Amino acid sequence: MLPATRRDLLHRVATAQAEGRTPSLVAAVVREGRTVWSAGRGEVAGAAPDPAGTRYRIGSLTKSLVAVAVLRLRDEGLLDLGDRIGTYLDTAEGADATVAQLLSHRAGLAAEARGPWWERTDGALRAEPADLFGDHPRPHPAGRTFHYSNPGYALLGALVERLRGEPWYEVLRREVLLPLGMERTTYGPEAPHAEGWAVHPWADALLPEPAVDTGLMAPAGQLWSTAGDLARFAAFLLDGDERVLSAGTLAEMCRPAVEPQGPEWTLSYGLGVQQLRHGGRTLVGHTGSMPGFVAAIWASPDDGVAAVGLANRTSMGSLVPLTADLVGAVAEAEPRIPEAWRPAGDLTPELLEIAGPWYWGAQPFALRVRKGRVLDLTPLGDGGRAARFAPGPEDGTWTGLDGYYAGERLTAVRRPDGRVGHLDIGTFVLTREPYERGGAVPGGVDEGGWR
């Protein structure tokens, strides 16, 4: 990156560490699939922390990694996201919640585990699944509302173990961590690692925090990692990796599964990842905290930039806005240079036949054919819904990738003479002329025509 950009990033990180009174802080920026900048401030064992080598506890970033493992099971046909978790696990609570509801925190389960503060107490206190839930295990009906649940992810970790027949972390390491190059992401602390600290609110003093094995609750926040490893996961959120998840499943994971509340929403949740609106951008990632540690990953697919932040103090403080600000600082100082345009190379006469203007009633749209036979539907003028469609399993069909038409089927309906007469998108009919006659428009077109 440009020297001025590097200086700006270092100033932001140094200011956050100093003003936030943080024992140590590491950060990294990812662009074009690799780490292009990193820095460490403060001290770990008397030396500056190494972004590539110093481990920090990552808290709820663990949930995003567990979600990837669950979605791999779905893609293999071992489960459906609509399946009830009780189909696979003998759980006294949440058995009627679906896998998708657990992934997106819509299962209605309690936010925290039974007993004393689970993040600071040994997992042996909750040795059995029945020990996860207390006297008020279900504040909300399943599917009714978003309610963040740590025990819900304990159930998802148990689901991975049940279907794979081995501990969830071993599955995660083999199927997700190692393929992504995250070799320093571990179940527990391994040297070199930071110690967790609480910072006194009214004095420059520190108090050690415990770092316990949380047992059955581990899928909710157990793992340790480095900024370098998390930068590889951030690159995965930006560009994907077909060895781990298909592009379609990654897109599904990163879409809001929870309806954003109001036009000014800032935070929503997908299938194991959060969506954050910050500085005019929509970012995907997750935050994490455990006693003595905070973490954040934010990625902007539109800009091709992501940032990671890790610190060893208990309160989140400025780490979340700092990490999001690093993304914006790079994107604004050094905008993404578009790839050179090239013809698609895989077009056919049948594809070219459906390109061009279409009308839903009187609303004009442009349908463009992109690389990979993807269709790009764009409204012209006011109103209308934009969407992209990927080729379907059957010739002449496509499946919506985003927006209102996500998952809906687009079909090119042909006339008896073989030519395309109209498009059908989930029963909505698009014709070549506004309210075109000929019988395709549901309800018919007035015989008097336009007047």
Which descriptors apply to this entry?
9 helices, 7-stranded antiparallel sheet, Beta-lactamase, 8-stranded antiparallel sheet, 451 residues, alpha+beta
Explain the overall architecture.
The chain is α+β, with helices and mostly antiparallel strands. The chain has 2 domains: 3-333, Beta-lactamase, CATH 3.40.710.10; 349-430, no CATH class. It is 23% helix and 22% strand. The chain has helices at 3-19, 61-75, 99-103, 150-164, 168-177, 227-239, 247-254, 319-333, 349-354; strands spanning 24-31, 34-42, 56-57, 197-199, 206-208, 224-225, 267-269, 274-278, 281-290, 293-300, 305-311, 356-360, 363-369, 375-379, 387-391, 397-400, 409-414, 420-425, 428-430. The strands form 4 sheets. It has an 8-stranded antiparallel beta sheet. It has a 7-stranded antiparallel beta sheet with strand order 2-1-11-10-9-8-7, sandwiched between helices. The protein has a two-stranded antiparallel ribbon with strand order 3-6. α1 (3-19) packs antiparallel against α8 and α2 runs parallel beside α4. It is globular. The mean pLDDT is 94.
